[in-house]
Amino acid sequence: MMQARRWVRTGLMAAYCLSIFADGQAQGVTALPLEGFKNLEFVGIEKEPIKLSEGSYSGGPRLSVKLSEELAASGDLNADGMPETALLLTKSAGGSSELVYLAIVSPQPDGQLKNTATVLLGDRVQIRGLELKPGAVEVAAVVAGRKEPACCPTNKVLKTFQWMGTELREGPVQAQGSLSLQDLEGKTWTLQRLGLKEAPLSGRSATLMVKGEKVAGSGGCNRYFSRLKDNGPGQISFGPVGATKMACPEALMKLEQAYFQKLEKVKAFGYHMGKLALTYPEASGTDALVFVAEPL
Predict the structure, then answer these.
(1) Where do the structural domains in the chain lie, given as residue ranges?
(2) Facing residues of 159 across strands?
(3) Contact indicator for 267, 1 with CB cutoff of 8 Å
(4) pLDDT tier for residue 296 given thresholds of 50, 70 and 90
(5) Above 50 in pLDDT, residue 14?
(6) What is the CATH architecture of 181-295?
(7) What is the model's pLDDT at position 295?
(8) How far apart are CA 155 and CA 105, in angstroms?
């Protein structure tokens, strides 16, 4: 099991706390204050180094690189007493492809931060967890199989990258089976966002608990229940939602109804930067309910 590690940096290395998870299932991930990394130069993504500006880079009308602020990890890779940081970046150049990169940032003797290595994880790889160990980085991910489209991966793997001082060298990939309902069990999932691009929710939020095909939780106001159907690896559907009839402030009731409506539309599940994502169709494509988790 991975343990959360906390490091405090002073000066240009702003203080931060990183939560790290990869026990085969996503766990609660809080927003990470990565201000010190948003304007760094990164290698290994384009032919020439690129410099982020407030966490993003634009190389023209189509090319876009973004730093994920949702999942990162810290640890002492080279045993020098100073923690390196593992970051995730995404690159899109038009179309449906989205390349995911793992980048290592190391503190320098002058107190500056420097990207010392970057490696491609794959196209539309879903990240379940991330950990730095002495001499290695582990990435728990979901990847597409040989006959699966890149959009809809279902194969859980653990990727291990050995730290070679100035580069990451990928070792054997450990297969961990296909997505299944068991990945949803044993935790209380707390709703963080109603959509991938929406702001995190504040105040009382909905929860989701799964036991076999039974679903229960709180909508933020009322207790609710439903049934869950397994339609194959990563493919699920929810039955009609039933709930108690308590009255709550109007804003909370609207949020609860929006959650119930989207839950009944869910067709699949996966992961988004360490968090559970329940995917539902929209007129413009698809979106997802995003959850963080706590052990039951």
Answers:
(1) 5-178, 181-295
(2) 139
(3) no
(4) low
(5) no
(6) Beta Barrel (2.40)
(7) 66
(8) 29
